[in-house]
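Structure catalogue
Derive tokens from sequence
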Amino acid sequence: MSETRTPEVVVGALLVNPRDQIFLARFTKRQGLYVIPGGHIDYGETAAQALVRETQEEANLTPTKFHILLVHERICPPNYKDGQHHLVYLDFLVEEWEGTLQLDGVELYDGQWVSPEEALNLPLADTTRRLVVYYTKAGRKGPVSYIEER
């Protein structure tokens, strides 16, 4: 019997501080590339619940004010596991949170606050670069956008 594959939905937290800096950290699973906190939505969990859970787990922060900024997807990205996954990304802009930033050290490490322009000079994961490029154009109040990649 052949295996049925379904899309995987991933949330991301683009943390933006009052100085308009964004938070990025190195990701252990992607050879030290910079990413934003985030991860897969669990079955029965809403996107907002997953955003809060992943941000708490990876950065010790609880998002309290956020909205969706970018929806994008990748079908069979060669650099993700076996290259046979369909990933749908829901990236949120997080403007307020509770807690003290502390990275888990398991998935994320070496975090830093940088301007979006400075971020584009860092070694970013493809999906993070796509989000930062969109954010530099759209800003905090930009319209939600959708990007398809095959």
